[in-house]
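Entry for BIS(adenosine)-5'-pentaphosphate complex. Fields follow.
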Amino acid sequence: MTFGMVILGRQGSGKGTQAVHIAEQYEVIHISTGDMLRAAVKEGTELGIQAKGLMDAGELVPDSVINGIVQERLQKEDVSRSGFLLDGYPRTVGQAIELRNLANDDLKLAINLEVSIEEVTERMISRGREDDTEEAIARRLELYEAETAPLLEWFTEEGILCRIDGLGSETEVYARIVEAIEDKIL
Ligand code: AP5
């Protein structure tokens, strides 16, 4: 059975880490908007040039740009064949509405990895990615509260939100996610 799902949570909550395991076990296509943008920056494309400054400052790339990239990716044949797991998208209500239009009934589950601000800040500081400066982390977390946290209510109303404790080892968190997938989708 193919399905679509999204993984939500604060920056540094472990979305990317867990998405890799989910994609491997359930053979869904892992689509990370952050990874796509970082690849564009590395390749020096027009998108990359536009996105770099925003990412380094912890700002969001405009909805119109991100929605276009995701729409194009979701239309690819591998996604129709295997389903999708979106990581880092949607991040605003505008993106969530767009996703609802794009995915129709294929979107079955939205997982929210719940980790405190203190814990995610520590995780990001020890990871040390290029955009993990103190200022950018603070800005990303501020934008999360303002733009992304309201999505939890949105997905609750859609009836597909599942809140998961993101504290514990990677394996412990993954076991909770598997339980949710088996319970709500399969
Ligand atoms: P993106 O790449 O999505 O970055 P982010 O939102 O900051 O999320 P992270 O990748 O930092 O966190 P994560 O939850 O994936 O955690 P991870 O698994 O790495 O986006 C980057 C930028 O692109 C944005 O700031 C924005 O500018 C732009 N962008 C992207 N999507 C966009 C969109 N839709 N709209 C607009 N702009 C967009 O884990 C973090 C660390 O914790 C790792 O070191 C990991 O090893 C560790 N860890 C993981 N699990 C555990 C655990 N259980 N216990 C202890 N440590 C753990």
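NOTE: The two ends are 8 Å apart (CA to CA).
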